[in-house]
Amino acid sequence: MKDFWKNINKMSTAKFAVLLLALINQGLSLTGHNLLPITSDQVNDWVSLTFTIVTALIAYFDNDTIIKGSKVDGGDQGETKK
Fold first, then answer.
1. Looking at CB atoms within 10 Å, which of 17, 50, 68, 71 has the fewest?
2. If you count DSSP H runs as helices and E runs as strands, how many of each does the chain have, helices first?
3. pTM (2 decimals)?
4. Other CB atoms closer than 10 Å to residue 25's CB: what's the count?
């Protein structure tokens, strides 16, 4: 049994746990039990905040000069090479 757990990917286990929690929450929501006492406006605010943070991080790290091993040297900002 120990060999079985060694072969399980931890990231997949975490994704499955989050999916299971979401399915349980959805099922309880369908039956009228709200586990998360939040309003629609609060959901809108959180979705907007999350979207802004994710897009800002993507834009920041998409710049190849920040990441190690980038293709562009950070010192060459459009200058012609001789």
1. 68
2. 3, 0
3. 0.43
4. 14
Q: In Å, what is the CA distance from 68 to each residue of 17, 54, 63, 65, 79?
A: 33, 21, 11, 8, 21
Instruction: Quickly tell me which residue has 């943070």 as its tokens.
Output: 53
| pLDDT value of position 12 | 81
Round to the nearest angstrom and report the end-to-end CA distance of the chain: 64
Name the burial class of residue 11, with classes exposed (0-12), middle (13-18) and buried (19+) by CB atoms within 10 angstroms of its CB.
Answer: exposed
pLDDT digits (tens, 9 = 90+) for 30-72: 888 877 777 888 888 988 999 999 988 887 776 555 555 555 5
